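Tip: read the tokens left to right.
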């Protein structure tokens, strides 16, 4: 199903996707198919060109499709530069590298999703739709009172979070989190007290219906505990529920 074209008459604009890919034939193929889906598409052949486009018009790009292996400046570096500039635009990273370490590094620098080459066109389009629809998903959660504001505290005030500025402090110490870590933290906050499965987390945070390994989620939970638990070995906020998933408890002393 194609996205309906949004017109100026409706007060909105067609969603704009930036493709950062140095293989011209691949970039052209992706561009053609995304345009057929109703998106506006721009192609940049390297990192510096892409960063200049995003810097000049930071609110004009709705999604970045970013190749990892770029000439001169890797996709990791481009992604990190975008995040360092305070831009939270969704980023889908493409790579022929299949090691879990490569995926983890991608998430560490702020990518939202990681798609291995070669990929099926239908999967790429599905990932694009998913990332662009996250704003609508959050609005739906808000309508059901399942969203948190720009600021959120837990642990008796030990942890203070500003989701708008990406500022997090623990016991007064500033902590820097990646975009994916912030997305995961927000999802837990919005579902405080509920038991959520790995499948739910993969679907709602990573936008993946499946994963080659559950270690993706587990590794991020380990980080959450290391960041926020007084004793990571005895977690009280990010609790494992055997056979079911995880439960976030904001104020364990009040239960």
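Filled-in amino acids:
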């Amino acid at each position: 199903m194609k996205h309906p074209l949004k017109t100026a008459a409706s007060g909105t604009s067609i969603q704009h996707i930036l493709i950062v890919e140095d293989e011209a034939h691949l970039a052209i193929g992706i561009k053609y198919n995304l345009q057929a889906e109703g998106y506006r598409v721009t192609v940049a052949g390297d990192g510096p060109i892409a960063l200049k486009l995003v810097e000049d018009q930071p609110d004009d790009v709705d999604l970045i499709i970013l190749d990892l292996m770029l000439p001169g400046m890797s996709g990791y570096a481009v992604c990190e530069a975008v995040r360092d500039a305070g831009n939270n635009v969704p980023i889908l990273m493409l790579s022929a590298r299949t090691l879990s370490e490569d995926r983890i590094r991608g998430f560490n620098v702020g990518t939202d999703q990681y798609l291995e080459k070669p990929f099926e066109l239908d999967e790429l389009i599905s990932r694009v739709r998913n990332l662009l629809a996250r704003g609508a998903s959050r609005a739906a959660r808000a309508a059901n009172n399942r969203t948190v504001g720009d600021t959120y505290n837990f642990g008796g005030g030990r942890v203070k979070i500003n989701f708008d500025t990406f500022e997090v402090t623990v016991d007064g110490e500033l902590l820097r989190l990646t975009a994916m870590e912030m997305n995961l933290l927000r999802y837990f906050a919005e579902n405080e007290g509920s038991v959520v499965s790995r499948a739910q987390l993969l679907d709602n945070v990573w936008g993946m219906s499946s994963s080659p390994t559950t270690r993706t989620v587990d590794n991020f939970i380990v980080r959450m505990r290391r960041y926020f638990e007084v004793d990571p070995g005895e977690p009280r906020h990010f609790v494992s529920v055997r056979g079911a998933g995880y439960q976030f408890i904001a104020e364990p002393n009040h239960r």
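Residues 121-143 form the longest helix (23 residues). The chain is about 40% helix and 20% strand.
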